[in-house]
């Protein structure tokens, strides 16, 4: 994949595959939070690394930072217990050495007495295997070596608690332990699940699994089990629970814990001892009144079979992750090390934002010919599959596997091609609140150019990069309707605004925004290419002629004093022309040289950059990470490109105590503050 394609993905380190290398590589990237287990909008666990905090005395958190996900891990060395995950009251605290992130993994290097450990949190990214990609499970595994060269008695332990399935400590939960051919797993769920929730799922089942040989698996009060780890010479776990039902907090200080432990005997090395953690929802989404389930369900008879396969696949999954990391970081590194850092931070979140689903047919069997994918507007409006979010994730999906774009677009196209939808422009989303996706047939004319442009650009990106023209053939007349709307309305968007304006920090004070207009014009040219794919030469020529005429007029209107302005005729306005990215990605070559030259002068004008990069526009001091990186792809020179990337990187590294939650997608370029964190599926949170 050429760097010019990869650069448009928001998304530095090749993971230490040997223990020695792990101990020698210095940490160079310090985000305020790092992903631990990130596989879906509701299985999204992070660890805070803000200034002044000790990762070895910090509980993992849900992505928004408002809910603790109790997850503890211990190593016992010669009878002395050290915890390497969480903030349990018992045992010694390991010494944190460094934290390194790659696109698929977070590696925490620690010292526990005489043992040096690499604790690796692996969230598989499997874009070409939809069964694996849709299975919401992650691994954590421990490698280690003796620091003193001696052998030691070693035991390992990890647990999760009922807080993984609800945000309320009063929720009544139920649990059980089961065994497969190759693994033992605990499961816990609410006794009264509900699909009505905002962020933390209240209808999920959490799993904690481990391979069979030489392990103990027990459910009990967290304090009781951890006391058994800390006390005595080895680890012998005994449950203190009489039943399989209780509240999340069995007392003010104790919660049910679901634990696995392993005795390694006397050794000087630890070789990838792994646990698996997952959070499953069933169904995932209800689209147009029909329940839809994670795609993996069509490939396994039961979730238990999927767990067994996931546990036994660990070594191969780790190898695939190493290979993907190497490829991603090599490509990203051709741009810059800072860009590679951003790719490492963004990759898991991008793919976790896509939920690939399948339906059942009339006989209750899985209908694998009906595959659809959905995104959640995480933490904000709860909208399902916002077009601007899919547009923002497009470069990542094009790079990883553009075939995923098809199932994301299918439900949007299907609904708008039905009798339920009559607007001449594309809808902004599938409605909501998540997980309900009823479709959105409301009056959204103010976003007509934004959404119609997004859809046409996405449809062409999918067809061009996959060679699959099925969406075009199926929905050609619908696509033409949107293109005709854009041909009429794009040049003078006086009554329209971009989706950015949904955020109060990015409210636009100008009309006739040039960046919005050019998106619509680029989409008209995209429709010309779509018509060519259909073999409709006359229509292709018509759309091409229209697009060229529009871009000529746009160039005249947008330029003022040799610079591109954010609003026609306003010489004081400026902004990031991030929609130029689509012309470059699709290789439409619609924008003339004069526009590139104007952009070069515009870039020179903006060289005095605030601490955290360029503002989105002169209307406010706020920006968006993704649009900043989109703009970097069309920067007229490497200096401006790197300034855009480096500004985002500085914000990604902004780990002061004022920084909230996961990396912010919308933030103030002067202060770095962005308000409430939101884990957007375009690779960044807000």
Keywords:
686 residues, alpha+beta, nine-stranded antiparallel beta sheet, six-stranded mixed beta sheet, 17 helices
Structure commentary:
- The protein has 686 residues and is α+β, with helices and mostly antiparallel strands.
- The protein has a nine-stranded antiparallel beta sheet with strand order 7-8-9-10-18-14-13-12-16. A six-stranded mixed beta sheet has the order 6-5-4-11-17-15. A five-stranded mixed beta sheet has the order 22-21-20-19-23.
- 32% of the residues lie in helices and 24% in strands.
- The protein starts with a helix and ends in an 18-residue tail after the last strand.
- This is DUF1793-domain-containing protein.
- Keywords: Signal.
- It holds the Pfam family GtaA_6_Hairpin.
Question: What order do the helices and strands come in, and which of them pair?
Answer:
Layout: H1 3-6, H2 19-24, E1 33-40, E2 43-48, E3 61-62, E4 71-77, E5 80-85, E6 92-93, E7 95-101, E8 105-112, E9 115-122, H3 130-133, E10 137-146, E11 152-161, E12 172-179, E13 183-190, E14 204-211, E15 215-221, H4 222-230, E16 245-247, E17 256-267, E18 269-281, E19 285-287, E20 290-294, H5 303-312, H6 314-333, H7 337-352, E21 355-360, E22 366-374, H8 387-401, H9 405-416, E23 436-437, H10 448-466, H11 470-489, H12 514-533, H13 537-558, E24 559-560, E25 563-564, H14 580-585, H15 593-605, E26 622-624, H16 625-633, H17 638-652, E27 666-668
Parallel strand pairs: 5-6, 19-23
Antiparallel strand pairs: 1-2, 2-3, 4-5, 4-11, 7-8, 8-9, 9-10, 10-18, 11-17, 12-13, 12-16, 13-14, 14-18, 15-17, 19-20, 20-21, 21-22, 24-25, 26-27
Helix pairs in contact: 6-7, 7-17, 8-10, 10-11, 10-12, 11-12, 12-13, 16-17
């Amino acid at each position: 994949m050429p760097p010019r394609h990869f650069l448009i993905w928001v998304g530095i380190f090749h993971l230490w595959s040997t223990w020695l290398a792990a101990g020698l590589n210095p940490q160079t990237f310090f985000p305020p939070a790092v992903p631990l287990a990130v596989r879906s909008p509701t299985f999204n666990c992070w660890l805070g690394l803000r200034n002044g905090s000790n990762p070895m005395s910090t509980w993992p958190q849900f992505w928004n930072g408002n809910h603790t996900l109790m997850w503890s891990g211990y190593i016992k060395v010669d009878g002395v217990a050290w915890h390497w995950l969480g903030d349990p009251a018992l045992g010694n605290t390991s010494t944190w050495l460094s934290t390194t992130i790659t696109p698929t993994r977070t590696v925490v290097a620690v010292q526990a007495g005489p043992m040096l450990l690499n604790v690796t949190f692996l969230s598989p990214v499997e874009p070409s295997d939809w069964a694996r990609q849709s299975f919401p499970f992650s691994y954590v595994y421990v490698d280690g070596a003796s620091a003193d060269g001696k052998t030691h008695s070693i035991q390992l332990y990890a647990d999760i608690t009922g807080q993984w399935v609800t945000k309320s400590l009063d929720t009544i939960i139920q649990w059980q332990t089961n065994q497969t051919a190759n693994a033992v797993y605990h499961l816990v769920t609410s006794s009264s699940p509900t699909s009505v929730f905002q962020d933390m799922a209240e209808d999920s089942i959490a799993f904690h699994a481990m391979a069979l040989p030489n392990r103990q698996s027990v459910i009990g009060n967290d304090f009781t089990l951890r006391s058994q780890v800390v006390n005595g010479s080895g680890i012998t776990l005994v449950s203190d629970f009489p039943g399989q039902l209780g509240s999340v907090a069995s007392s003010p200080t104790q919660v049910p814990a679901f634990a696995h432990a392993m005795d390694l005997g006397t050794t000087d090395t630890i070789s990838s001892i792994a646990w698996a953690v997952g959070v499953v929802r069933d169904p995932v989404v209800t689209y147009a009144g029909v329940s839809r389930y994670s795609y993996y369900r069509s490939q396994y008879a039961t979730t238990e079979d999927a767990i067994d396969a996931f546990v036994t696949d660990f070594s191969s999954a780790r190898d695939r992750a190493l290979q993907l990391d190497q490829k991603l970081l090599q490509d990203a590194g051709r741009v810059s090390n800072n860009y590679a850092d951003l790719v490492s931070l963004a990759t898991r979140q991008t793919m976790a934002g896509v939920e690939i689903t399948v339906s059942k047919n009339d006989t209750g069997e899985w209908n694998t010919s009906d595959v659809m994918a959905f995104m959640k507007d995480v933490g904000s409006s709860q909208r399902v599959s916002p077009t601007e979010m899919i547009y923002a994730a497009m470069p990542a999906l094009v790079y990883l596997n553009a075939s995923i774009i098809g199932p994301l677009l299918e439900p949007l196209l299907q609904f708008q091609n039905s009798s339920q939808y009559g607007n001449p422009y594309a809808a902004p989303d599938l409605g909501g609140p998540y997980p309900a996706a009823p479709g959105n047939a409301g009056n959204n004319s103010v976003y007509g150019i934004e959404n119609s442009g997004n859809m046409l650009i996405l449809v062409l990106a999918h067809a061009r990069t996959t060679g699959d023209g099925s969406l075009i053939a199926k929905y050609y007349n619908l696509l033409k309707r949107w293109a005709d709307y854009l041909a009429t309305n794009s040049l003078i968007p006086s009554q329209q605004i971009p989706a950015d304006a949904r955020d109060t920090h990015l409210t636009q004070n100008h009309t006739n925004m040039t960046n919005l207009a050019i998106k619509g014009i680029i989409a008209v040219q995209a429709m010309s290419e779509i018509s060519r794919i259909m073999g409709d030469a006359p229509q292709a020529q018509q759309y091409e002629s229209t697009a060229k005429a529009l871009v000529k007029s746009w160039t005249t209107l947008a330029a003022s004093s040799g610079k591109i302005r954010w609003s026609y005729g306003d010489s004081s306005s400026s902004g990031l022309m991030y929609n130029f990215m689509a012309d470059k990605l699709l290789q439409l070559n619609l924008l003339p040289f004069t526009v590139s030259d104007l952009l070069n002068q515009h870039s020179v004008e903006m060289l005095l950059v605030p601490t955290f990069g360029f503002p989105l526009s002169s209307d406010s001091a706020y920006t968006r990470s993704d649009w900043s990186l989109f703009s970097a792809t069309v920067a007229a020179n490497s200096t401006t490109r790197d300034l855009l990337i480096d500004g985002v990187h500085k914000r990604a590294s902004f780990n002061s105590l004022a920084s909230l939650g996961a990396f912010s997608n919308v933030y103030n370029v002067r202060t770095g503050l962005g308000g409430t964190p939101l884990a957007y599926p375009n690779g960044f949170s807000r």
